[in-house]
Design goal:
Rossmann fold; Cytidine Deaminase, domain 2; six-stranded mixed sheet; about 525 residues; alpha/beta; 3 domains
Length: about 525
Amino acid sequence: MGNKTASTNQKYALLSVFDKTGIVEFAQKLSVLGYAIVSTGGTAKVLTENNIKVVPIQEVTGNPESFDGRMKTISFQIESGILYDRTNPSHVKQAEELGIKPVDMVVCNLYPFEAAVKDEHVTLDVAIENIDVGGPTMVRSAGKNFKNVLVVVDPADYSPLAETLASGDVPFEERRRLAAKAFGHLSFYDSQVAQYLRTETSYPVEITLPGRKTIDLRYGENPHQPGAVYMEPNTNSPLKNLTKRAGRELSLINVTDINAGLEAVRLFAEPAAVVIKHNSPCGIAVGSTAKEALDRAIQSDPESAFGGIIVLNKPMDRAAAEMIGAFKDETKGNMDIVAAPAIDEETVTYLKTLRKTMGIYTFGEIPAKRTQPYNIKWIDGGYILQAHDDGIEESFADWKVVTKIQPTPEQMKQMQVAWKFISRIRSNAILVVDKTIPMTRGIGSGQTSRVRSTKLALEQAGEYTKGGILASDSFFPFDDSVKLAVKHGIAAIVQQGGSINDKLSIAAADEAGIPMVLTGRRAFWH
């Protein structure tokens, strides 16, 4: 690609960066390669202090930097120098007549809007001052004219680009790659600005979601599918801090299982543990300590726990880790992944003795409130945004006892625990919770028939159905599941209600002399 106009052999590189990482070294290399360096404000100052000759931007524009730096690069001279097509004779002639200096390279990164709004107390005025205008204008112009102008937004590209330039011109495909990266960077930046300024509570007609790669996955859902994890900037999701302490790298299923586990245990202030398989819990429990919670979660369904993923909402200590050791000793069963807010070095060392390939991960504290207002469900070619299913505890005030017999305080407490549990179990879901211990005893999930889910949960719970609590994530369309639960000794039922056949289910509970509570709120999870 041509880097010269008909009127001059001089090449110009425009350098205007907020992040000065590597810019001095890159500018030095460009100077050696014959580029005249045009620069602005702080960038020009740094380069000059390092003995790099700089053409001040005002010498090109003919105008001073103005309005506290808001106006410096935006000008007819600069944008013309970037945009005119060197392969178009008419453009070349106009550039000569107008005395336009050809800008052959734009090196730019933008005002730190992401860093500015990371502070939840940032004022609107401060945030607005960190919205870059001139930088994106130059980058967009250079990206459009990438056949003639190189555009560089990432310091990681400085060194390899300098090497390529030293050995000749930059190939078309590399120019195109840099341009694509530049437009992606602009979209990432602008989507953050839009997200920050957006105040409407409804769902906008157009929306973009910024994402930055944080993990290259071992593979996706299957070994033949590559994949990577992307996180939104400034999210407070624990997954952003996911750190490997030992063992295997993560696959897509590992990450989604950890995420499902986080969703389950974040509902509790007290120590909670969950064993996850394929995004669905096979055991959830609460305890007075992490050890007690984990022991209960594993014992909820030891058979399904084999090869599962453990997630805790409290740090894992040696005592909790020994529950995994006991599980291995008793059942010859292994766990694939352990994830907790923190794990001390002694405990990591112990866990490594249990299974060399077991992934050991930490993710920091689980925040009470999320920064991202949307829950995203991906579909072919797009996605669905919805509100998170939060505020479960607040919904307890709307529950209604619809049977003649009232639940005991202990039963009501267990129902509330069961409702939290079931809100994070794949629908259709039926759950049996122990009569006094906050732990699952039987889970029937992912079924297309509610009565089939009921049968699975009751079968798994076995002897623990007697006196236990049964929860349904939606209403019972018939009374068959209620009668089945009663037959197995279930002592109380909590369900959504709202079916035209509610009266049949209520009558079945009354006939058995057990309480039934309607939540008035569904708890589907897909």
